[in-house]
Amino acid sequence: MDTTTDGLKKAAILMITLGSEASSKIMKMLPDNIIQKISYEIANIDYVKPEERDTIVNEFIEMQQAREYIIDGGIDYAKSLLNKALGPQRAKEVIDMLNQIQLRERPFDIARKADLQQLTNLLLGEQPQTVALILCYMQPEKAAAVLAEFPIEQQSEIAERIGTISHTSPTIITKIEKVIENKFSNYVENKTEAVGGVQTLVEILNSVGRGTEKNIMQVLEERQPDLADEVKANLFTFEDIITLERSDVQKVLRDVNKDDLLLALKGVGEDIKDFVYSNLSNRQVETMKEDMQFLGPARLSQVEEAQQKVVATIRKLDEQGEIYLRRGESDVIIS
Hints:
Elements: H1 5-18, H2 20-28, H3 32-43, H4 50-86, H5 88-105, H6 109-113, H7 116-123, H8 128-136, H9 140-148, H10 152-164, H11 170-190, H12 198-205, H13 210-223, H14 225-234, H15 246-255, H16 258-265, H17 270-277, H18 282-295, H19 300-319, E1 325-327, E2 330-332
Antiparallel strand pairs: 1-2
Helix pairs in contact: 1-3, 1-4, 4-5, 7-9, 8-10, 12-14, 13-14, 16-19
């Protein structure tokens, strides 16, 4: 639960909205210090505006949906479903908010971040009830992998204890967490975090101007041709529009600004123009060809800017799950 002042006020309003019966059941599961803070907020709320109440209830529902999606299929699965339900911007806000809250509220965060083998080695010497408690707070897939490393006779004992845990004193959790953190501290302090890499570079290049992208790729091809090939295999450019499925191209053409498309096509070969035309009606093609004749010469920078706008539309549809882009050797489907 978010324990900032704003978070406590939201929790208090939610409790008031849910009513005394439901709220009392929730309160019983909270630590004493949080109960005191929320109770103080409730006591100091005289009136709740209907729109404020509705916003907080909707936020609570969205957060719960996000939690369930993450538990069911992980963060990418949650993002995909939330994108469909809430749109990409709101989905990102909910995921970010949930991540911030979980970082503050969930015990044994150090165990969730630890290397699987190191975690297993350290837990093998712990009591079954301690292992069971820690696994309850871990990612299901990681908890399953840890459990599988224990001797068979211990697996069933730990599983039984997990199944029978209902409530645990916050004091006990804190004590166990401190012991575990002390054991993990040396490992975590020395652990390096994965940053950078090809995918990070691709994401950056996907956001820069076309001229900057070309300059960077040209230097990469000269200095590190293998890296350049790997980046190009994952980088979507305007010319890659021919790799899209017909149905996806038609979605793009419905969303893209027609003037941008017209200008973007001035800088490509006939094969790409023909591909785009093949996804338009005969009347639309005739109109575009006429407009292109009247358009006259255009600066390269203008053409590249228009191509970048079209690519931005393609990437937006990709992020929303409306289309999918081929990257590297396999198709990445975002639905």
